[in-house]
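ok here's the first one, seq then struct tokens
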Amino acid sequence: MKPDVDLQKNVLHALALDPHVDESAVGVSVRHGIVTLDGIVESYGERDAAVAAAHRVPGVHDVANELIVRPGWHTAPSDSEVAEAVRDALAHVPSIPHERIQTTVCGRGRVTLEGTVPTPAQRDAAEAAALAVGGVELVSNLLEVEAA
């Protein structure tokens, strides 16, 4: 087992390398090999990315996720701003056929994805892209996958 200080250093490095995580917002502590992440992040997607980054570090088996999601630190974005940001996020992932996806934003960061995509991977990628948007708290993924 790696010493706790080495695991902490390696997890901090993994967070810094992940483009979906603001590593300055995430605290990392390690005790008896258990990594604890704490702090305040902008989205559930960022929280999930931080946990995944910690788990990618060799020697990390357990992660205590104490991250708090608080979108829009100063002001919560309007539904229109969230809708625009989700559309932009979908359009910037080359594998997502964003023109085939309809979104609905309904108060307090709730996003619904509807439409049809060719593959399950595209369905999952669309959900992940929407979750990564600041201000999004919940994604209802109603995307259907085309029959083969």
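and now the second one, same deal
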Amino acid sequence: MYNTRESEYYSYLHDHIHNVRRTWEEILSPVVLKIYPDWWSRTEQEIEDHDSSKYSEEEFDAYCNYFYPTVDCPKDEDAFDLAWLHHQKLNPHHWQYWVLIRDGGKTVALDMPISSVVSMLADWHSFSVKDPNSTAYNWYTKNKGNMRLSINTRTIVEKLLEYLKEPLR
């Protein structure tokens, strides 16, 4: 049996994953089928597996404590940072997954495959269900200066964002 905060976190995860899939099915799937048909099947699988690592031992408690803290389970920034790093490096729908840190310290943004770009956009857009201003388009516009994307990836992102200006209803 789960306690209240764990139940709230499970509910949040369920809703988020459901809304990522809705974004894929209702908006992006037809676009990918038309523009990038060779990527449709791979994208479908990536969407299906979206955020499954958040249920893992490495992520679940740290996320739950961070977003649903209690006196007994307080917010732990260090634990969350480790869980977030784990999540980024395990899930190619995060742009950080595609940033290489070379031994000398230089960072290089690698090209993201179409499937990961589409999954990333579906992830961003999923929040528009609860907040109509949180479309993928608006999120990117606000945050693009902080993101390390290759030129090719940025071009694809900006092309697909044209379909993600309106919130999911």
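notes on #2: The first strand starts at residue 99 and ends at 101. The longest helix spans residues 4-35.
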